[in-house]
Design brief:
318 residues, mainly alpha, 2 domains, 12 helices
């Protein structure tokens, strides 16, 4: 009997279109299962009256607020985190490409991301103001009313979860709303979905924009669609140019974490800036913000490309 070298059968890659269908089916399924598990835990711990309170948006009690966190973590955050990880490791078996967890990028990008997120605020605010003034045709008045009612209901729930009476509660929100949510959503959107669209469309820019549209639509905030679309585009380019998801996670954390910290400071009357109120900048401010954002993106891409060229040539960069 002759010994022969073992040659494992290479994994046959699934077509990106089918990957997208599988990923979306998994996402919806896991979110539904997670929601049922979350409700079951709330029912077992707090009873049916707390479930009814959540369904009727009566979330003023301490029990209802704790139940909301259970539903958020078990029914939404955990499924969003587990789905892309399972998909990357088990379905396509390419975790490096579909999660992009490498730290091999210039740390100067972290500084540029921070500046971009801060200095793009007027531009994001401008898009938000446009979105707020959106009015549908008269024959869609019912749809518009439903959209506003849905958004008001979602805001009531989020306001309850953002009620921070102590510094410890602010840190809790900062970790779970700021960091954990950023990691989960970036793994899902800029990791898996954006990679699927890059392979499917063969165009990074198209992939970034399609993913950003899905990212904004996923949040079901109709009158905040445009600013969240811009955020999705920024997160997308941060990932596609650096080859890593972590700059996008950092940007996402800055965006969410800033809201948490400003809300906490406002609730405790340490600042007068109300995070729920739109801030008005001059048109000059909007234009300057747009120009600076484009410039910072150009610098970000330049540094990322320089790193990639150095890697190809085997050079060392700080």
């Amino acid at each position: 009997m002759t010994d022969r070298p073992y040659n494992p059968i290479p994994h046959k890659q699934i077509h990106p279109a089918l990957q997208f269908l599988i990923f979306m089916g998994m996402s919806v399924g896991v979110l539904i299962i997670g929601s049922f598990i979350g409700i079951a835990i709330i029912l077992a711990v707090f009873g049916m009256h707390t479930v009814n309170d959540i369904m009727t948006l009566n979330v003023t009690s301490h029990q209802a607020q704790n139940a909301l966190w259970i539903l958020q973590l078990i029914g939404t955050t955990l499924p969003i985190l587990l789905t892309p990880v399972f998909f990357a490791y088990v379905i396509v078996r390419e975790p490096e490409d579909y999660l992009k967890t490498t730290f091999h990028f210039s740390w100067l990008l972290i500084v540029i991301v921070f500046l971009t997120m801060i200095l793009s605020n007027p531009l994001i605010e401008f898009l938000g103001n446009i979105n707020e003034k959106m009015v549908l045709p008269k024959f869609l008045k019912g749809v518009e009313d439903w959209m506003r009612d849905s958004e008001n209901s979602a805001k009531k729930l989020s306001d309850s979860m953002m009620e921070m009476k102590t510094f410890a509660s602010m840190l809790f929100d900062l970790i779970f709303i700021g960091l954990v949510t950023a990691i989960a959503e970036e793994f899902m959107f800029r990791g898996c979905l954006q990679t699927i669209f890059i392979r499917w469309m063969k165009n990074k820019h198209v992939a970034v924009w399609i993913t950003a549209i899905l990212f904004s639509a996923f949040h079901m905030e109709f009158f905040g669609f445009l600013p969240r679309l811009l955020l999705g585009v920024l997160f997308g380019y941060f990932t596609v140019w650096s080859g890593s998801v972590w700059p996008a996670v950092w940007a996402h954390f800055i965006n969410n974490g800033t809201v948490v910290v400003v809300t906490y400071l406002f609730q405790h009357k340490l600042i007068t800036l109300n995070p729920d109120e739109s801030q008005s900048f001059s048109y000059a401010g909007y234009i300057i913000s747009f120009i600076i954002t484009l410039f910072l993106l150009f610098i970000y891409r330049y540094i990322s490309n320089k790193r990639q060229i150095a890697d190809i040539n085997g050079e060392e960069l700080d």
